[in-house]
Amino acid sequence: MGIINVTPDSFSDGGLFLSTRQAIAHARNLIGEGADVLDIGGESTRPGGQYVNADEELTRVIPVLEALADTGIPISIDTSKPEVMKHAIEAGAFMINDVNALRNPGTLEAVAPHNHVQVCLMHMQGTPQSMQTNPQYIDVVSEVKIFLQQRVQAANAAGITVNRLVIDPGFGFGKTLQHNLSLLNRLNEFTTLGIPILAGLSRKSMLGAITGNNVDQRLHESVAAALLAVIKGAKIVRVHDVKASKAALAIYTSMRDYDK
Ligand code: 7PJ
């Protein structure tokens, strides 16, 4: 899953038009690099990220979604807002990727009736504004697992069948480095839920905390992390660097499947 951010940089004067064009061009690049799906986000969910209202988020993501319709590539929309979910689904989104795991009012109802739409339920402790202040768990793996199990049940109760779901432990979302490492090392324990696992580690600060590299210098650690996540059972990896990740994963899957 290739990452496409449509978040206009207030320090450059290009504004929304430029960032839309850049996002579309970037998306076409990632498709060329072999992305199987693209995740488009119009709101920064990073720690301390800026709040964006639904109208603004829609004006960011819908034009990109529409421009990519002719590519035939499945599009995931990274959002927690019911209005954005509804419009994105109407505009052809194949997946809703919700870092809030359909906990916001109206989100279960926004997604449920659309049987062809997949949903990624991600774990987060706290809110993007406060989540990295003092994350605490007794056993991070079992607590995240119980949370995801509960969100799967809530989705099922709302009419979203299990075959439409993907789960994600939410690396970096209300977790210390130790919590993140524990989740990665024990990611295989989530496979017992019987739902595909998505892992997002690409360029995250936990990687920089280990190597000391800045965010734009984390290619090698991101590829290593994506590879480890897949070895530990992830079915989808959310990455910035599609070409490098695909190459690394091709070596792993060739080895794994060589005598099949
Ligand atoms: C994730 C995400 C993730 C899912 C972001 C960043 C922060 N969605 N959206 N999983 N991370 N499902 O990319 O650094 O880990 S935004």
Automatic annotation (TrEMBL):
- What catalytic activity is recorded? (7,8-dihydropterin-6-yl)methyl diphosphate + 4-aminobenzoate = 7,8-dihydropteroate + diphosphate
Checking NCBIfam families in the record gives: DHPS
- Identify the CDD domains for this entry: DHPS
Q: Which InterPro entries match?
A: DHP_synth-like, DHP_synth_dom, Dihydropteroate_synth-like_sf, Pterin-binding_dom
Per the record's keyword annotation, is Zinc-finger included, yes or no? no
Cofactor names: Mg(2+)
Q: Which Gene3D superfamilies match?
A: Dihydropteroate synthase-like
Is Magnesium a UniProt keyword of this protein? yes
Origin species, per record, is: Nitrosomonas ureae
Q: What is this protein called?
A: dihydropteroate synthase
BP term (GO), one = folic acid biosynthetic process
Query: Which stretch is the leader sequence?
Result: none
What's a Gene Ontology MF term here? metal ion binding
Q: In which pathway does it act?
A: Cofactor biosynthesis; tetrahydrofolate biosynthesis; 7,8-dihydrofolate from 2-amino-4-hydroxy-6-hydroxymethyl-7,8-dihydropteridine diphosphate and 4-aminobenzoate: step 1/2
Q: What is its EC number?
A: 2.5.1.15
Q: Where is the Pterin-binding domain?
A: 1-250
A Gene Ontology cellular component where this protein is annotated is: cytosol
UniProtKB keywords: Folate biosynthesis, Magnesium, Metal-binding, Transferase
